[in-house]
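DUF1997 family protein structure dump, as promised
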Amino acid sequence: MIRSRNLAAPKPHSIHHSDNNPIKPIWGRINAAVGGSSATTVLRVSNSASKTANLSAARKERVKLDTQGSNSAGGYEIGDFLSHSSGIKSILNDKALQSFESLDPNTYRCILPKLKLLNIEATPVLDLRVTPTHEDCTIEMLSCKLQGSDVVEYQNEHFSAFMVNRMTWDTDNPEPFLEVDVKLNLTLEIYTQPFTLLPLSAVEGPGNLVMQALVDRLVPLLLEQLLRDYYDWVEKQKQPGSIIP
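structure tokens r here:
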């Protein structure tokens, strides 16, 4: 598992999007769930009294892959798509992002829409590495940070996130398929009352349920969007004069 870290970002071209996307309504519900209309006072405690909660979620899902059109079109298989710039954008789900930019040939900084946390706006920023091969495609989260006020960015010192998504496929199988295997881990320092007075299980239990519900909801949607983008891409390649850049 790759531990989150900061990457020095050059000044690449940034791509902004505002298109409709099935993930956006879910992001809005997450925003509403964690947001609030009134300020909340929290009490910090000494480091010796703080606790560390470990949350995790995982999901593996396999879907049928329609390869008839792709093979007859000249070999435009799923592996070709995931190595193509159109496939990379689909993997990043760029239509649901505020913007994204390339840090190097395989690493991308993704700016998500703003969250409202107790009247404080925070912008999640993810650095993702996408490694496509002829046999699989691995997406790793290298960094997960919040941008905003000093209070918001102070929270970056109290959590770390880990994520890996390995995508595999078999187009020679009698029933071709695409499979995703997602693992998500979150380490969270509990340093405010009254949460420090609770047993870790009181935080980890509900936290794991929320994370698992989120992963269970997002993975099928992302997979559905990926397949839709793939089939659209194949159709474009079948058009006369179309050349894969």
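Residues 62 and 179 are 4 Å apart (CA to CA).
lmk if u need the other ones
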